[in-house]
UniProtKB/TrEMBL annotation:
Keyword Iron: yes
PANTHER family listed in its UniProt record: FERREDOXIN-2, MITOCHONDRIAL, FERREDOXIN/ADRENODOXIN
Record lineage: Bacteria, Pseudomonadati, Pseudomonadota, Gammaproteobacteria, Arenicellales
One CC-aspect GO term: cytosol
Co-factor(s): [2Fe-2S] cluster
The organism of origin for this protein: Arenicella xantha
PROSITE patterns cross-referenced by the UniProt entry: 2FE2S_FER_2, ADX
Taxonomy, superkingdom: Bacteria
Keywords: 2Fe-2S, Iron, Iron-sulfur, Metal-binding
GO biological process, any: P450-containing electron transport chain
Protein name as it appears in the record: 2Fe-2S ferredoxin
Domain named 2Fe-2S ferredoxin-type: residues: 1-104
Family of the protein in this entry: Belongs to the adrenodoxin/putidaredoxin family.
Length: 105
């Protein structure tokens, strides 16, 4: 699936990702800036905070309990906020657009 990352200045990076990987893994292994992922994907740092493009919120789905708790410590959380390490990519996410927050640059 093709995933597009858009940074806070509007720069786009499209990555051809593998289903089963997380959005965080795709970003860090492709040097996409704006996702720090300090805890390595354990849902324990909230530095992989991203905004899901409005057209994709339903496909990606809502955060689970632990993720929602971690999001409370992230900056600038919105209704479409998710932690990228908790989003496992599926074939249905082909074309997904996520935005990275300025606070992670
Ligand atoms: Fe730490 Fe996602 S990488 S919460």
């Amino acid at each position: 699936p093709n995933i597009t990352f858009i940074d806070y200045q509007g720069a786009e990076r499209a990555i051809n990702a593998a289903s089963g990987d997380t959005v965080m893994e795709v970003a860090t292994s492709n040097d996409v800036p704006g996702i720090d992922a300090d805890c390595g994907g354990a849902c324990a740092c909230a530095t992989c905070h991203v905004y899901i493009d409005s057209a994709w919120v339903e496909v990606v789905g809502a955060a689970q309990d632990l993720e929602s708790e971690m999001l409370e410590v992230a900056e600038g959380v919105e209704a479409n906020s998710r932690l990228a390490c908790q989003i496992v990519i599926t074939d249905e996410m082909d074309g997904l657009i996520v935005k990275t927050p300025e606070s992670q640059f």
